[in-house]
Amino acid sequence: MTALRKNPVALTPDAAPFAIRAERASDVVAREALLDACFGANRHARTCQRLRDGRAPAEGLALSAVAWGRLVGTVRLWHVGAGGKPALMLGPLAVDSSCRKLGVGAALMDHALEVARQRGHGAVILLGDAPYYSRFGFSPLKTGELSLPGPFERDRLLGLELRDNALDDAWGMIVPTGAVELETKANKAPRARKTVRLVSSAA
Question: pTM to 2 decimals?
Fold first, then answer.
C-alpha cells in the first residue's frame, strides 16, 4: 500500500482563506460553471464521464472548496468496479485560477483521500497527469490491465491503494457501480457562464 501524504486535510483560517466542506445543492450552478471553464464545452463527451452519467457520487465524497463567499474548487469520487475489484474513481477535480497559489487542489485531494480511507474504501483510480498525482501516491503500477469505456491514454490511468493489495490482479473494464442519481431541481439548474482558468484537474 502506498502511504498517504502526512499533510493536514484541512487548513486553518489563518493558514489560507479557504475552507473545504461537503458539496451543497446551492453549489451546483457555480460548480458547473467552473467545470465548463476548466474542461470545455465537450466535457460531457469525455471517456470518464461514462462512469458518472446518471450516477450519484460516493457518500461523503463530493467536496467543495469555498473562499470569499464563493466556490473555488470541486472534487467528486464515484463507485466503480475495477475488473471486479471495488474502487472509487476520482474526478473531476477543478480549481479556480485565482487560487492557484493557495494549495486548494492539494487540500481537496488530501481531504478526499482521507475521507475515503476513513469510510473503508480500498482503492482510488483516476485519469490524470502522473507528475501531479504521484505526490499523493498514485501510480500506474496496478492499472496496466484495466480499461475504460472509451479512448484514453494508458500512462494517465493511475491507482492508489488505501488498503494493502486492494488492486492486486485487477484487470478488465472499469464500470460504474454507484447508486442511480435522483434528479432534483438543483441538478437541473441552468449553468452560469463565467471565465475561470484551469489550475489542476482530473478528467
Answer: 0.82
